[in-house]
Amino acid sequence: MAARAQQIGPSGFAGFGVALLLAALSLGTLAVVGLNAEGLFSLGPADWAALRFTVSQAVVSAILSVGLAIPLARALARRRFVGRRLLVLLLGAPFILPVVVAILGLLAVYGRSGILSDVLVGIGYRPLEIYGFDGVVLAHVFFNLPLVTRLLLQGWQAVPAEQFRLAAQLGIDGHNFTRHLEWPILRAVLPGAFVTVFLLCVTSFAVALTLGGGPRATTLELAIYQAFRFDFDLGRAALLAVMQFALCAVAAVLAWKTGRTSEFSPGIERLAERWDGRSWFASIGDGIMIVMVALFLLVPTVMVIVNGLHGLATLPASIIPAAMRSILVALGSALLTLWLAVMLALAIARQEPQNPRVSGLLEGVGYLSIAASPMVIGTGLFLLLFPHIDPARLALPITALVNAAMSLPFALRALLPAVRQARQDYGALADSLGMTGLSGFRLAIWPRIRPAAGFATGLAAALSMGDLGVIALFADADGPTLPLLMYRLMGAYQMQAAAGAGLLLLVLSLGLFWVFDREGRHDAGA
Amino acid sequence: MFRNALLGAALIFFPGGAAGAEDLPVLNVYTYDSFVSEWGPGPRVEQAFEAQCKCDLQFTALGDGAALLARIQLEGERTKADVVLGLDTNLTARAAETGLFASHDRVVAGLDLPIEWTDTRFLPFDWGYFAFVYDRTKLSDVPRSFTELAAMPEDFKIIIEDPRSSTPGLGLLMWVKAAYGDRAPEIWAGLAPHILTVTKGWSEAYGLFLKGEADMVLSYTTSPAYHIIAEQDDSKAAAIFDEGHYLQIEVAGRLVTSKQPKLAAEFLDFMLSDAFQSIIPTGNWMYPVLTPKSGLPEGFENPVPAEKALLMSPKQAVDMRKDALDEWLHALSK
Amino acid sequence: MLELDHLLIRQDDFSLAADWQLAQGQKLAILGPSGGGKTTLLSAIAGFVALSQGRIRVDGIDITDLPPARRPVSILFQEHNLFAHLDVAQNVGLGLRPNLRLSRAEHDRIAEALTEVGLTGFQSRRPASLSGGQRQRVALARALLRNKPVLMLDEPFAALGPALKAEMLDLVKRIVGLNETTLLMVTHDPGDARRIADQISFVADGNAAAPEPTEALFNAPPPALAAYLGNPT
Fold first, then answer.
1. How confident is the model at residue A427 (pLDDT cuts 50, 70, 90)?
2. I need a labelling partner for B162 at 20 to 30 A (CA). Which of A108, B171, B205, B322 fits?
3. With contact defined as beta carbons under 8 Å apart, do C196 and C172 qualify?
4. Which residues of A are less than 8 Å from C84 in CB distance?
5. How close does chain C come to A176, measured CA to CA in Å?
């Protein structure tokens, strides 16, 4: 018994604790909501229609995101040009933009009165009308293409530079290059990337509704929302949430069967030079790809900036405390995410050799929250806490906690490979030197995972920054966060100022990401 | 760097509690989010009421009326709310069913409402008509009824809100039902080709409209007043429909579980005073239920004659909404 | 004959110059401190690093502007010489055909090459199931099949034990002997140089010195080499 406890160590227990916490947050809250339900409940045809729409738009969005990301990532991986790093950073912007801001940016380009429509009308055509299935897919590709691109870029970074040189010397080019160098990584990364996008689209709600053009575009998440506020039918909400979990579980199992789940590698920009695609044909192809996708992704982002600049002057003074509050929530949430992810990753890596099942279970729990409904988590937490404490007093910590849980799947993906590698390289050495506990972690593991940790923390901070999240459910007594203030501005007819707040959100989110990512890479080699 | 951030976070996450007003009794008022925003009536109402009540008025802000009701349903008898402010007549029957709302014990007369007020639990504090808002400078041929709207050219587009997630959305559902009864599905089928999209809430819809995405948006007859008063822009106007306009009457009620029943009653009285009512027009951009002594600001002329005011009784609204929603879903899902 | 004609490589604040020739069939060891540019020199000859100045010729043909695949050289890295998802035969076969459409005759040649490096019957093994030494043997078999006039080794045996390393060096010696291949080998170990090399180029301070006969150089090392070698062995 004692020997076993020794082996697991304090941080091992912490890892199990984290897994329990996450399971409680996603499944526990669902159970609480279900237990508070009264009477019988069943699903109607509208619910099944919602399921069908949810699945079909998510599948198409995922296919397109992945399909476009492959040539884009390849082009970015093998071309060097001025501003490439900035481009890669900005490409990440849609993923962390608050939904409403992003939608307005998208419509400024693709809407009926957007730039493209103006051009079309100018040359005698009808304006674009993207509302409907197309609009939903367009928006989802806009949000997720950058994510998949980043995943692929990082996957290819894991290919040793020698292999590219070897391929160059052996004259492996064209489809042979794809087959021998790109495909092995694609095979490892794509299933996971596909499922990640699929899951994100499954739980989408405001995008699907606003651009979907009407109730045809009802997703499960909207059905859950309706069950809460239109019907106040907790049982139906819980049942729909179970359906959403089941759907995500099926997708995850499929991904796991078709390949190893993908992993973010450390956030180091360590792109090996490649010799493939040196023909003018390939160069032009890559150039067109980069320009097209950059236009697709960046023009809406630029429109967010342009619209926001007009609104900056009209921002109220309360924007400053709101921004401070948001930054602090984001920092708290990001550091919590980091801690949770590190503890969990350590436990996973430690259990892997002897107990692969336990380890797999822990990993699965880490990804649970991606399938959870924020509405269910919020309501469940509320039902749990309300009898004991005034929820408004806990608004900010709870927001930080829930945001941390929501960012965890991404953070875990970033950290797990680094932690595995560090354990593999130094685990035995650290054990033999008796470097256990915190000091062992600080000396043996931390320096190795620092870049990945910086990337993960930055992403978590950015995601938390832009998220309205559960704060709307918890009625903050101390004042609004930045996204909430932005919504309040919109609610008070002040669309200009709201656009300014959106710009501020964008800048702060990207800024936080950049700072953490850089902090992680900073003296990583020392 | 990490350590300092953590310390700062801890400080803001667990504040020591509000200083100052410790000895004063606290009145908890649950209301919707835009009421308490710094541009809404909340801050001025709080100041005015605290000046007379020797109490600490604390707002708890939730998304909107439906979210308020859901919260009260979740909290049940343990709720700390003394007053709930911001439900409307589409929600009052369900709110009354919870048994949590006390009778207001007042004789209500002389209100400037298009209808007579008979509810014994809830008191109205403002009202408005749902209407489609358009831009005068862009639209000359304005539809004057749902049927004319349905007959507009194919590329005439409107934006509406989803009844499942928004108050105006539900209002429109009731509007069509009140005006057309069993013919509602037919009207929806006619409107369907003109509905550009359905948004989650009013903000998204109105934002898209201001961006020029559609010709008209579902809002209120008082929306143009905002642009006139706050932006000196008189280009926005509300289309007045022959069928009449559906009323939204926003109400407040006091809870039976309140530990401050006297204060709660005092607040309801205050709500019907000139101090409160004069804040409503340019605070909430709705009509006050009592015309302020100073009169109504420009743009608040009522364009709808009282006999054209449509409203379901709270009971009708509850009985009707499930079927009305199914009709709507059916018509728009084709 | 390998000619480095007024060759100069500049990368940021690093530079390396070389201006010498090496006759066909010679075995050259490249010695020098870390970061001195030994690997960069091989990379430049293989075409992975662009020259700032100068020309590279092999047997009188200017290869300076050729892409890596068309240069008459093979290179072995310290690791990652094999593709993990291909078996041993395929990894060797890449040296014959990048598309791996191998004829029966080519399979026979692969088998012979594997026998030559002591891996008879290893065709269907995966790299993951091989030891470090065995993997390098597979890479050597591929180089043997490619049969390029110049073979370059970038510390390919640094991770092996002394006995195994000696064995590998002898194998290399035998292989380059088969086709009169010119050998360039980067190493840290003067012992390696003694065991295999006819000549030595000492790379330090931004310069790759012209090759000198191994014995002569070790017997009377210039000061920089002496400092590098430490106590004379």
1. low
2. A108
3. yes
4. 184
5. 6
Instruction: Say if residue B137 is in the same domain as residue B184.
Output: yes
The answer as to whether A128 is a domain residue is yes
Q: Partners for B (CB, 8 Å, 3+ pairs)?
A: A
Check whether residue B85 and residue B204 sit in a common domain.
Answer: no
Q: Is the CB of B58 inside 8 Å of chain A's CB atoms?
A: yes
One domain for residues B166 and B221: yes
Q: Is C84 on the interface with A (CB under 8 A)?
A: yes
Q: Which residues contact A423 (CB under 8 A, 6 or more apart)?
A: A346, A349, A350, A445
Q: Would residue B15 count as lying in a domain?
A: no
What is the distance in angstroms between the CA of the first residue and the CA of the last residue of chain A? Answer: 40
The domain spanning residue A143 has which CATH number? 1.10.3720.10
Chains B and C make contact, 3+ CB pairs within 8 Å: no
| Euclidean distance between CA atoms B309 and B300, whole angstroms | 16
pLDDT at A360: 83
CATH 1.10.3720.10 fits C1-72+148-233, yes or no: no
pLDDT at position A2, please? 37
Task: Provide the domain count of chain B.
Answer: 2
- Given phi > 0 = left and psi -120 to 50 = alpha, else beta, which region is B247? beta
B243 and B268 belong to one structural domain: no
Search chain C and give the residue with CA nearest A277.
C67
Q: Which residues of A468-479 are buried (b: 16+ CB within 10 A; e: fewer)?
A: bbbbbbbbbbee
- Give the residue numbers spanning the domain of B91: 24-127+248-288
- Contact residues on chain C for A166, CB-CB shorter than 8 A: 75, 77, 80-81
Interchain proximity B196–A112, CB inside 8 Å: yes
pLDDT at residue number A139: 92
Compare CB distances from B213 to A111, A477, A487 and report the shortest one's residue: A111
- 3-class SS at B57? strand
A279 to chain C: closest CA residue: C67
| CA B91/CA B123 separation, integer angstroms | 13
Residue B14 lies in a domain: no
pLDDT, tens digit, 9 for 90 and up, residues C156-204: 888 888 888 898 899 999 989 988 999 999 998 888 899 999 999 999 8
Residue B279 lies in a domain: yes
User: Does residue C233 carry a pLDDT above 70?
Assistant: no
Q: At what angle do helices A234-258 and A220-229 cross, to 10 degrees?
A: 160
pLDDT at A470: 63
- B169 and B276 in one domain? no
Closest by Cβ to A492, choosing from B34, B157, B211: B34
Domain residue ranges in chain C? 1-72+148-233, 83-147
Q: Inter-chain contact A112–B8, Cβ cutoff 8 Å?
A: no
Instruction: For residue A66, name the pLDDT band (cuts at 50, 70, 90).
Output: very high
Same domain, residue pair B159 and B232:
yes
Which chains are within 8 Å of A by 3+ CB pairs?
B, C
Cβ separation C67–A165 shorter than 8 A: no
Bigger pLDDT: B124 or A433?
Answer: B124
Q: In the prediction, which pLDDT does A465 show?
A: 86
Q: Predicted confidence band at A264 (pLDDT cuts at 50, 70, 90)?
A: very low
Q: Is C183 helix (H, G, I), strand (E, B) or coil?
A: strand
Instruction: Confirm or reject contact between A328 and chain B (CB < 8 A).
Output: yes
Same domain assignment for residues B95 and B81: yes
Percent of chain A surpassing pLDDT 70: 88
Which residue carries 């009512």 as its tokens? B277
Which residue segment(s) compose the domain that A508 sits in?
18-33+51-521
What pTM, to 2 d.p., does this model score? 0.82
B62 and B165 inside one domain: no
User: How close C98 gets to chain A, by Cα (Å)?
Assistant: 5
| CATH number for the domain that contains residue B313 | 3.40.190.10
A365-383 mean pLDDT: 83
Whether B113 maps to a domain, the answer reads yes
Size of interface A-B (CB pairs under 8 A): 171
Asked if residue A41 is part of any domain, the answer here is: no
Report the C-alpha gap between C51 and C109 in whole angstroms. 36
| End-to-end Cα separation, chain C, in angstroms | 32
- How many alpha carbons lie under 13 Å from residue B327 in its C-beta half-sphere? 23
